[in-house]
Amino acid sequence: MLHRAQPGRDLYALVENFFRNDFQTENELITEAVRRMLDAGGKRLRPRFALLAAEAVGGDAAEHLRLAAFMELIHVATLIHDDVVDNADTRRGVNATAVDFGNRVSVLAGDYLFAWIFKNVTAEYAHPIPHVLSATLADITDGEVLQLRALGDLETTFANYVEVATKKTASLFAASAECGALAAGASPFAVKALRDFGTAYGIAFQMRDDLLDLTADEATLGKPVGNDLRERKMTVPLVLALESGDREFRSDVERFFAEDDDTRERIAGIVAGIGIHGGLAKTEAALAGYLERAKQSLAPLGNAPARTELAALADALL
Do 53 and 180 contact (CB within 8 A), yes or no? Predict the structure, then answer.
């Protein structure tokens, strides 16, 4: 099989150019709301996964830009809904959609965008791509519900966490890689390799996001530091710290979740406890393990240049 990468092509620029010149729905208000979210930035990792997967099996990235864009738009729709569910004020350093447009328009915008995407996907792409994406959306929603049910649940295990991360975050990375490969005519063996890569990478990506919420600054995050703790989310550093922490630390976390005290000082104390009891270091180790698993899954792709780029995206998380 021929493996090629376009010389000098910039996948990020290709995606940005597509959104700037070709994205338009039939509803002007929703198009504006989505464009604001797109203009706020982002790494466009999901569309890059789709394009790199297509290239890794011999495809031309330029021929699959529309499919790649759908991957980012699914992500944007989930973010619009997430900000309503989480009552968030900011996203990527700008106002959340609900702040500018209100909750009702935001919910409808997310719903419309999902429907618009699937209307186009089912019209333009053969089985199994529409099935992969519809199953992915079901997984994302299921993961969100599982996360909501686990809020403040100190009995959450690492396995519980991985299940949520797999569905809520990794499923779209996996689907992006899988659909890019399918659209380019990949063999079942290559499709599975790329899907496995996306799954392992996505779990590591969520772990990194959990770490950044505790250790980065607000300018870097584009949202308040410690936001996950404020929302009582059982992120992986907290889960791992509780597994090895003493009774005093556990009681402190219980009090924090029960109190209405989310000052910076109080959150800093919880973060310090997570660090003392190994939550941050163990998360780094688990993250590295999933990234190694992701890179190993690419072995069936041989020496495709796009394989090197996918592996580099994994290394960048470290």
Answer: yes
Nearest to 256 by CA among 221, 228, 223, 218: 228
Assigned token pair, 194:
């790329």
Question: CA 227, CA 231: separation in Å to the nearest integer?
Answer: 6
Report residue 90: phi and psi, to 5°: -130, 155
Domain spans in the chain, listed from the N-terminal domain onward: 11-316
Bridge partners, 94 (sequence order) = 91
pLDDT digits (tens, 9 = 90+) for 114-123: 999 999 999 9
Residue 200: name the closest of 294, 119, 137 by CA. Answer: 294
Fold for the domain defined by 11-316:
Farnesyl Diphosphate Synthase (1.10.600)
Angle between helices 158-165 and 236-244 (to 10 degrees): 170
Q: Residue 297's pLDDT is what? A: 97
The torsion angles phi and psi of 303, rounded to 5 degrees, stand at -100, 25
Backbone angles phi, psi at 252, to 5 degrees: -65, -40
Residue 247: CB atoms within 10 A of its CB come to 7
Report the C-alpha gap between 30 and 76 in whole angstroms. 12
Query: How many CA atoms are closer than 13 Å to the CA of 201, on its beta-carbon side?
Result: 28
Specify the pLDDT at position 38: 77
pLDDT at 93: 63
**Could you say which residues of the chain have pLDDT below 70?**
1-9, 86, 88-93, 95, 98, 218-224
